[in-house]
Amino acid sequence: MKDFSVILKSLWRSKASPLLLILQIALTFTIFVNAVYMVMQKHEKVTAPSGLNETQVFSLFINLQETGEARVAEFEQVLRDIKDLDSVENAIPVTSVPLSGYGRSADIGYGPADEDKLTSSGYYGSNYDSKDTLDLKLVAGQWFERSDVTHSFFGAKSGGKILVSKALAQTLHPDNWRDVLGKTLYVQGDPQQVIGVVDNLKAVWSFWRLFDHAVLSPVFEIKDKVGLMVRAKPGTLDKAMLDVKEALLMTPGRQIDKLKPFSQTREESYRADVAELQTLQLVLVGLLILTMLAIFGQARFAILKRRKQIGTRRALGANQLQILRYYLLENLIVTLTGVVIGMVCAVLVNTQLVSYFGLTPVPADYLLVGALAILLAGQCAVIQPAWQAARVSPALATRSV
Amino acid sequence: MLSYYFKLAWLSLRKTPLLSVLMVGTIALGIAAAMVTYTVSYMMTKDPLPAKSDRIFTVQLSSWGPQQPYKVVDGREEIPAMISYRDALNLKTAAKAQQETAIGLFKSMSRAEQQDRRDAQMRMIRTIHNDFFAMFDVPFLYGSAWSEQDDSAGNQVVVITKALNDELFDGVNSVGRHIVLGESLLQIVGVMDDWFPIPRFYYLSSQAYHDPHALFVPLQYQINQEIFSRGDVTWACWQDIEDVAFSDFITSDCIWLFYWVELESAKDRADYMDFINVYVDEQKSAGRFARENLSRLFTIDEYLRWADVLSNENDMAVWLAFAFLLACLLNCMSLMMTKFYGKGSEIGLRRAVGASRQDIGWQFLCEAFLIGILGGVLGLVFAQFGLQLIQQIFTYLNDSIMQMDLRIMLMTLVLSVVASVLFGLWPIYRATRIQPSSQLKSL
């Protein structure tokens, strides 16, 4: 440890280049920790389960050509036709497809007035079969009865039953989300009775703050253009999609739109996030390489400058290991100083990010792991020059004195 | 002399291969990052129609209803970018511009005549006047635009893109063959060659970097067929039009069309604006256009800025990338410092046998220049990889915003050389200050 004070002294005597390095490390650390954290959060977001069966379900939109009550019959016939297909397990009408980017949000509150609004939520209307078709998991309360299912031309009627997602229940009752059961909730101003809670159901916009909030009602809508979600028998997704298309196009004037597997809907929904994620990762790799290069260059410079000094030390009896240890320690001190400054900056930057963009603060273990990673990178970068330094022959010193 | 210095520089680079690779690599990394972001930003914001950008305008009218403004932005009333069919028809009939076209959109099942009903696909169909093709310099591979007569009668004709022609007809000349839209048969009159205006300026800003839609038909065809894809296109009304007949919808003030005019020269802008103002006054006296007249003409650039397509977000990425380049250059500077310091004895020797400080300076400048060139070339290679990578990340955007043109490639090399020489100056200055005596001692 006697090297320690010597190193400090020698660093103090030529401040410029170690100082630059310290600043660069601090800057790298600041960006690194925040970016890694953003990457992890994004990664978590794009890999989070959607709550649906993602491998067997696909969705599509079709036009309905009849008007009035005949249109209801037409829609129900379409559903029956699809369910009759061999490759199809079940099919439901939907007002919109989760994660698809197209759909509706509803104001949620315990009263009809604007000031009663507590939060917002995605809204879906479907029928009794939605549980089986989408593989929804009921965590409290009960499912709809078949007799609860009705249709409308827009939205749910007052006084119906609804299911809510667990996240919405937690927002409404942070202490005990089960309290939501049996309550009369106003959905877009209409009173509805909450009869159950679904474990996980997302709204349609993945970028929405309240993406986890969803309300499911047993009221499907009859418009000139309607949505369907279909569950294929295991392993027959592609065939089921073709079969459905073929069956539907038997009707002249039938239009089919946005026929795609749910996995594709999901992928498109997170496309911007994934792009951002990959770009961030590229930046991180570039930054890390650059910092390692900087440490390497600086260490080499410092050693070249002190060849004679090293020779002298070797001549005075220092062995190779001691020289190696000296430079590793020197690098450790410089990097550590950079990391400590960087930690302060990272926390400062992060608090700004938190207050401006509503991000969650970086957990302490990110700072620690980040610090370790940079220290390790520094040591790796310095090994080669330090090893060269250790091999400086003592003769070098004697020759030039 | 200079060639001798370059030879020396080359030898010196080869003598310390690791250090040379690091220097060149560092510069290349920074240059690549900077040029990739610059390329994307440059390509995204370049003028899509340079030959006509000052004499092509989109018309925006104050046609909104009396109750409330269409939109309020920063406390000021905004008018919509789109106009109603009624106004588009009036402007087209007045024919005050050299060329003019309304631009609409609908969605329909579509297939080639030889395809099975099951192979039909839902596609967006662009509806326009035939002036569209000449105005926007659309190149044709086969056939041509449809005639004036097709326009006014709304004949069943269609122009398709090269991509669709490749998909449906294997790229052969398909003029005269047919496309089935919904239940009706449309004759192909033209096949466009590659045409990717970037940004795609002529319609909504939200998809400015997507490829043009594959099918173009006369606007009057859409009107004749009474097609309006309520749920799939952008439109707005200030009147209540729930369940109105199509004929009532198109005579209403509902907006759903863009309108573009080409004037003979930029000077005619004021005249055309006068015509628009007169038109607005006429409509006012007929009981329409109840709001204050905020009607205006926008050039492509003005429209894109107004619609926030040319945002500052790209600029920020470019700034960040250039900051990264700066960090790389500082790194390279410290590496050069190392390099030249290590050559202390050589410098001492050369100085002792008569080389002046300038000579030493020139020699190392050549070395910095060489590093810059090599860094630039490697940077170009890295940048191509970077752009490839970006293309894979942003598959939904048009590829041509991720390609370098010759100008940018040259710029890359120049930037690399200038940067490395500039950041070499300090190490070179330090090198020329080395005292011959102090170094010679140690030889």
From TrEMBL, chain A:
Tell me the Pfam families matching this sequence. FtsX, MacB_PCD
Stretches that traverse the bilayer: 20-40, 282-303, 324-349, 364-383
MacB-like periplasmic core domain location is: 74-238
User: Which locations, inside or outside the cell, does it occupy?
Assistant: Cell membrane
Main location, first listed in the record: membrane
Give membrane topology per the record: Multi-pass membrane protein
What region holds the ABC3 transporter permease C-terminal domain?
Answer: 283-394
Q: Which InterPro entries match?
A: ABC3_permease_C (IPR003838), MacB_PCD (IPR025857), Macrolide_Exporter_MacB (IPR050250)
Enumerate the UniProt keywords alphabetically.
Answer: Cell membrane, Membrane, Transmembrane, Transmembrane helix
Q: Which family does it belong to?
A: Belongs to the ABC-4 integral membrane protein family.
Provide the protein name.
ABC transporter permease
- Which species expresses this protein natively? Pseudoalteromonas viridis
What lineage does the source organism belong to?
A: Bacteria, Pseudomonadati, Pseudomonadota, Gammaproteobacteria, Alteromonadales
Automatic annotation (TrEMBL), chain B:
Q: Where in the cell is it found?
A: Cell membrane
Q: Where are the transmembrane segments?
A: 21-44, 317-341, 362-386, 406-429
Tell me the keywords, alphabetical order.
Cell membrane, Membrane, Transmembrane, Transmembrane helix
Kindly name one Pfam family recorded for this protein.
MacB_PCD
- Source domain of life: Bacteria
Coarsely, its chief localization is membrane
Sequence ranges assigned to domain ABC3 transporter permease C-terminal in this UniProt record? 320-436
Q: Which residues form the MacB-like periplasmic core domain?
A: 20-223
Topology of this chain in the membrane: Multi-pass membrane protein
What protein name does the entry list? Answer: ABC transporter permease
